[in-house]
Amino acid sequence: MLFRGAAGMFAQDQQHELAALERQVFDFLGYQWAPILANFLHIIIVILGLFGTIQYRPRYIVVYAIWTAVWVTWNIFIICFYLEVGGLSKDSELLTFNISRHQSWWSENGPGCVRKEAPMSGIKGLDNHSYISVIGCALEYRYIEVMHSSFQILIALVGFVYACYVVSVFTEEEDSCLRK
User: Fold this and answer.
1) 55-111 confidence digits (pLDDT tens)
2) Residue 119 forms beta bridges with which residues?
3) Residue 108: Cβ-neighbour burial (10 angstroms; 0-12, 13-18, 19+)
């Protein structure tokens, strides 16, 4: 029983890790600094959860379970951000910490998107800049970001259930060893 729970948690954590790494890559491509930091912290906590599962350390798994609740909250915020719920605007520089004017990588490179650049000649100080227009996208980038976050929420919820199960099994195992 213990092995089955730990093996399930381990397999689920690996999937969680791959999904987080995939998301990290696209956030780096879009220079989305807040999500990059959140993803980095998420990857560290998932590794901690993996370590806790392998080494039978329930405290590490509890930290992972608590983090999944934070991670779900973060992804709900991202969904609200891209759907512009509650006064949030997907065009704001909130996710880049006002450091740059970058957006989601998907805004210019989504499925079916055709990117057209027009040089801005005649304006001093903008020698290497150009106006970029994107047309023909099969799916608007904000919906891709919402799908990414929804998938992260789904994985986090499954991870939370596994973490609770594994912690309860580990605790039961410890209690039965203490009684003997």
Assistant:
1) 888 999 999 999 999 999 999 999 999 898 988 887 777 787 677 666 788 777 888
2) 130
3) middle
Do 16 and 79 contact (CB within 8 A), yes or no? no
> What HEC string does 131-154 produce?
EEEEECCCCCHHHHHHHHHHHHHH
Q: Which contiguous run of DSSP H or E holds residue 93? A: none
**At residue 135, what are phi and psi to the nearest 5 degrees?**
-135, 160
For 77-87, how does the pLDDT look when each residue is reduced to its tens digit (9 = 90+)? Answer: 999 998 989 88
| Residue 49 near residue 64 (C-beta atoms within 8 A) | yes
| In contact, 70 and 76? CB cutoff 8 Å | no
Q: Scanning the structure block, which residue is given the tokens 């903008």?
A: 126
How many other C-beta atoms lie within 10 A of the C-beta of residue 5? 19
To the question of pTM greater than 0.85 for the whole model, the response is no
**For residue 175, what are its two tokens?**
């209690």
